[in-house]
Amino acid sequence: MAEIVIVDRDGKEHRVAGRVGVSVMETLRDLDFGVAAICGGMCSCATCHVWVDADWQARLPAVQGDEKELLRELASYKPSSRLSCQVMFTEDLSGLKVAIAPDE
User: Fold this and answer.
1) How far apart are CA 39 and CA 23, in angstroms?
2) What is the pLDDT of residues 6-36, one digit of tens each?
3) Structural contact between residues 74 and 49, judged by C-beta atoms closer than 8 angstroms
4) What CATH homologous superfamily does 3-100 map to?
């Protein structure tokens, strides 16, 4: 089973089933981890902001265009920041670890 390791806003780690072919945001939203995902994955709101664990950053496609602009405007921006709506989950990402960033 492909899984995602999620660190919630309280610092608790959860291992959940990853859904291949859908964005990480959809899993976070559907499992009620407090990710609002207001724009529904259109890369226009940043309410699905996560920090990607250092071991996984190089395995993801580079941040592009609108995502980069939105992230850099956030007070909680870090070099490991991603919008989870822009990270499509694949079998190769089994074990991906993300921490949910604070609401802004």
Assistant:
1) 13
2) 999 999 999 999 999 999 999 999 998 989 9
3) yes
4) Beta-grasp domain (3.10.20.30)
Give the phi and the psi of residue 2 in degrees, each rounded to 5: -75, 135
* Joined tokens for residue 61: 């496609």
What span, in angstroms and rounded, lies between the C-alpha atoms of 52 and 100? 9
The residues spanned by each domain of the chain are 3-100
| Distance (Å, whole) CA 8 – CA 50 | 10
- pTM for this entry: 0.94
Distance CA 22, CA 88 (A): 6
Q: Is 74 in contact with 101 (CB distance < 8 Å)?
A: yes
Q: Going edge to edge, which strands form the sheet with 81-83? A: 13-17, 3-7, 96-100, 49-52, 81-83
Ramachandran category for residue 46: left, alpha or beta (phi over 0 → left; psi -120 to 50 → alpha): left
CA 81 to CA 90: how far, in whole Å? 19
